[in-house]
Fold these 4 entries.
Entry 1:
Amino acid sequence: MDYSFVKSLHGNFGILAFLLLIVLFLRTLYDFINKNEKLGTVRKISKYTTLTVHIQLILGVVFLIMNSFILENLSGKIAGSSVSYIEHMASNLIAIVLITIFNAKLKRADKITPSLLVILVVSMVLLSRVVPLIMNILK
Ligand code: HEM
């Protein structure tokens, strides 16, 4: 079965998701430092970041279902990297859950709290393992 289309969609959407997360982190930090109470901009960025990572999750699962090789070789490495399939999926799944929690909490917040920042930093650390994969795509 030809799954290269889903794979490249997941790869390129991954670049977008990672860039959005960096923008979201910078804006959250800015609003935190300035004790900003107008959170319209950060909420908008957060909404699009959450939407993108959810699409990314769906694409990842579709790709997984189409490519039974991965399900049979979960500890195998993603081509050209030292990241194993299982590590990639588990860490990104947790990161996506954290981003979703951040987005939900942000909707009800009237300012950026340290705990909101911590949630975002942890999700960035978890997602940082996609950097070598992104570098491979951009090569
Ligand atoms: C925001 C979260 C995620 C990002 C940024 C991301 C990003 C990436 C990138 C950049 C690649 C390399 C693609 C390529 O070499 O063309 C990749 C591969 C892969 N991703 Fe994700 N991913 C995420 C979440 C997930 C999730 C949740 C799953 C599964 C449930 C998943 C399943 C896979 C699989 C199976 C591959 C291997 C492709 C191969 O065989 O080379 N990803 N991902």
Entry 2:
Amino acid sequence: MGNSHEEIDIIRRTLRYCEAGTTHMESGLLRNPVSHYANAQRLAQEQAILFREFPIVVGHVSQLASAGDFFTHDETGVPMLVTRTRQGDVKAFMNVCRHRGARIVTEAGGNATTFSCPYHAWTYDLEGRLRGLRQPAGFADLDKSEYGLVELPAFERYGLIWVRPSVSEAPISIDAWLAPMAEQLASVDMASLVVHKAWSVELNMGWRIALEGFQESYHFCSAHKQTACSAYLDNQSVFVDHYPHFRHAVPLAQTVELQQQPEADWDYRANYMDQNYLFPCNFVQVMTDHVFIHSVIPTGPGKSVFKCIMLVPDDVDLSAEQRAKKTRYWEANYNVVCAVFGEDFVIGEGIQQGLSTGVNEHFVIGQYEAGIQLAEKAIGDALDERLVCPQTLTLIE
Ligand code: FES
Ligand SMILES: [Fe+2]
């Protein structure tokens, strides 16, 4: 796929900034109260609003390739069971039995024809309908149709699976919600990729601290001196606001050479790493030839989990030898990214430890750190109910 207008504009801006010796800057400083990072009441509000009312990415379509494939997702505090039905739809349910509330599926993932509760073996089909119960004579008056699994809004778009972790009568429009980022998400063609690795890291830091590591590149050449620094132009990120989401485009070191090339020859994808923020907690990090899907989820005061899925092109057409070589290449990339994230996590955990000292009443967010400013605005809007997930009057997809 060729470059979009937005991508051409990003390249032009990068080259202009480099020539003028400047970079993308917001209009002023943001003084972010430390309470936005370490306050129990604020965290409860964030969990109740950001992680209940908005859809979040829970997986990639290849994780539910066939009917009956399923995985569970628990980090938001809502036990979710996500599966693909015989009709090919993605559905999400509360992973909670309708008899006496036991956790129905205990595995992280797999394939099933039905889901049977471990406590008294009430059994549900892939559509969540209660199909059978052991020794039903004692439940003679029970209307099984009233005891199906509780369904959550689930959507499959751009190769990713989204679930809103709460039940509500109000349907939401995932297309309206993602519309500001539709062009960027479609251009990555994530549905054609496969999972190379999926992993989680428990972090001793609040989720906002982890989130902000992806929202500026000002830190690359200080925090990642020996790793990411040399790969990118120092502090030359371009941010494109697609409220409440945004694109964070980080030019690779060789991008300056595009100055010598006609625009028709420019190849955005070969020259940029994107960290697309999808409100409230996801990033689609697009590298030149692979993609990471990140989720940063609060799990308690000063605690969060970082979930990552590494997506790579399918290698079915390669020979065994080529495949082994490719696997080594992806592993090398995985190791680099783990090293870089490890550097961020050490710093983030240090920030968390310093929060309680009272040294800072606020953090000062510079004009370069545009992504933090954009996200703070969107998060604040959601907490104050100025930003809500769009609803439709039509049926949930
Ligand atoms: S709690 Fe699930 S069958 Fe009893
Ligand atoms: Fe970093």
Entry 3:
Amino acid sequence: MEPVAYIHSENLESNISILKEVVKKRVIYVVKADGYGHGLINIVNTIRKVEPAAFFAVARFSEAEKIIKHDSKLNVLLLSPLLDAYELKWCVDNGVHFILSGDSTFRLLCEYLGSVHFKNVKGNVWLKYNTGMNRLGLSENLVKTYYGLLKNSYGDKINLHLLSHLACSNKLDHYANELQQKCFLNLSDELKLPSSLYASGGTFLKKCKQDTDFHRLGLLLYGVSDCFEGAKDLKQKLLPVMSLHATIIEINQIKKGDFVGYNASWIARESTNVAVINIGYGDGYPQSSEGGCVQIADRLYPLIGSVNMDTITVDLGSNANCYVGQDVIIWGGRVKVEDVALQANTSPYELLTRVTNRVKRVLL
Ligand SMILES: Cc1ncc(COP(=O)(O)O)c(C=O)c1O
């Protein structure tokens, strides 16, 4: 069988229930980048089963369109700045929430709200406050200025919210977290707007801060948590939503001294059996992986040689009972995507979102 990513909807449902109990605030489900690589609509549908009025966050206009085309009643927040008047009008008309992080969106918004084309639907605007990340967002003064101008001129036509993004949420004790939180909470107290400070898996697990009205949940939803410190008990309950599978397509007997693969990078120290597995970096397995392993039946076997575009090779040893056609779990079983990320010097975020299109997503 070709490589396949099984999407375990029961695990997602269970993760949501567990996390919602802890969050206690309204959750915004972050489903950008094709639902973190799991398939956007798969994930949206599963989340809706648990929470029919769920609120979803995406990063691209096209992702917002895809969700609204799927069901126009869904609540969506677009986290990246709008690029033109068409996108702004579409978001307002379709009730899609969007961020205001700069002058161009402010102008487009005022033009549309003041125009004869404005339909009588309320725009849902999130003032994005730059609390120190210095990437996207408005200074404190600009937040206040836009807040005042929008409230006075178009107060009846829009709902305003406040949002920000932590820079060091994976480094729990970093001084920036406290600084950013302080700025954010001061301003949200002053403006009294519904708010969401990005807490990410990391800060959420350690501090479980409940100071904002909405909580944006991403990686933890998908059952990936080992990359965050703390909250061991909670992390143990979260289950991986994706299991990535491939198949043994060849088993070769290798003599002592034989090499395997490109650049003859692996040489057998003793005779062994080497399985060729039909997954490679063309499917999203990281080429930089060094020393990882895969699961065949209930045993782990080490990767050898280099990761190719279409295959990897593993050492089965001399007595393995493996066979051609056998299922191989690449991650999502005993090997976690967090382990593969560590071996490849990358992050689980990157690995999940770069599983390529030639890997079929099968919703279970
Ligand atoms: C703006 C924003 N909010 C929320 C999230 C969710 O973060 P996590 O996946 O760490 O929970 C992200 C992730 O990239 C993000 O960019």
Entry 4:
Amino acid sequence: MANLDINSSPRTPSELAWPAVRLRTFGEKVLAIAADFLDRLETLPVTTQATRDAIRGSLADPPQQPLSDDELLMFLSRLFQDSTHTAHPHFLAYITGSGTAPDAYASFIAAVLNQNVGGWATAPAATEIELRLMQWLAHIFGLPPATAGGLIEPGGAISNLTALKVARDFKLGYSCRATGVRCSRPAVIYSSEERHPSIDRAADLLGLGTSALRAIPTDAFYRLRLDLLEDAIRSDIREGILPLAVVATAGTTATGSIDPLAEVAHLCSKYSLWLHVDAAYGGGAMLSPRVAHLLGGIERADSITFDAHKWFYISLPASCTIFRDFACAGRSFSIDASYTPPETNALDLSDYGPAWSRGFDALRIWLPLLSFGTEAFTRRIAEDVELAHYLESEILKRQDLELMAPVALSICCFRYVPPLKARSPYDLNLLNEGILAEIRRIGSFFCSSAVLEERFVLRVCIVNYRTERAHLDALLQCVVETGRRLTVTL
Ligand SMILES: Cc1ncc(COP(=O)(O)O)c(C=O)c1O
């Protein structure tokens, strides 16, 4: 074997390694683009005016030879133009936090460090930060510190799936991991008609089938009806079916309603069901004393989904799956029968969830917490609730707007109703669909919609720390003006 003398000739650095000087100069220019974008954000349309064809047409196969830095910067600038700006104070759709500056820097540092948080050895500090963060969240939710723990996943849908996998194995017996569910009694999951569709998807993925999902009707406030839940559980027991879990929602997607968690927890212990609380959105309320009490009973959950990329303002993706007894997740996911117990130093997070290799997403939550302090989140979450109530009160003052659901957290649903004109339910739906499409088309506001009892409603969700009263006033003005204009043409 030839003797390699590594000192004999100067080494040529890999062309894939940027020298420090280029990293700095390029970084400064990228930072300037980002800072300028955030500075001008409010003056920009909330979403791009470019068509799909135009965006597709701007892309080609990757070049064989490198682009210049100027070309790279031009490409990056174009991304800002062709995106929907979730950080814009007029972005009020779905449930998408606006991202924070510290979490953008955390993304960069996480990429530089490139930890594989699947294993402790490949990510010692990152694993411990993730575990510490989960312990803190478990404490906020009132779970027992001795056993509780959790992990970060790519979204609330995956967190719901992970939690229900653990529930399935706990209830059917861990042997079902080997035999499959076909060897078990038929088992069912209960959730309200207002549940997020990811619960149905989880039932499908877990081999239970979507028919194993019992959709329980809701009350006038869009909360799961306890009497009907208990009837359904009893009826299934009579039929020899195994009631497996209840998924209660703390902050439904459409209206933000909160299921009666304490009462659901009581039924779960009465009939020995796993209680999963989908607090993907509403979990943030636990930091605000004004609304935290509405989630009373969540401390009795066996598992909780909480999306930091929703009402915690962190950039996507950052969902937290938290367990009352984290060891159950280990039993459900470890593929080694002698999985490492959580109290040893060698805790590998890939043993506690479906992912194998995992990134350092915890840093994107941790750094903002260090940089703002928890009280800043407490204040802003309370402000979001106040803003939603302000919007509700402004809508109630007007003849041409109709409130469509009471505000529970920071979502407000309403519609435009042309005054002095009787309209069929069909026409009102059509009119409000038109308003939503038009305000999005002109890029002035980005709202979303919901269908409540067959009525199409405009839906505003405030999880954006840049949104203030004046923006909501402008939104109502825009809806009414657009409604008036469309009423003439309808
Ligand atoms: C109540 C609820 N659960 C789960 C989800 C899914 O979360 P994600 O989009 O992060 O996967 C959502 C999404 O809006 C939601 O509102």
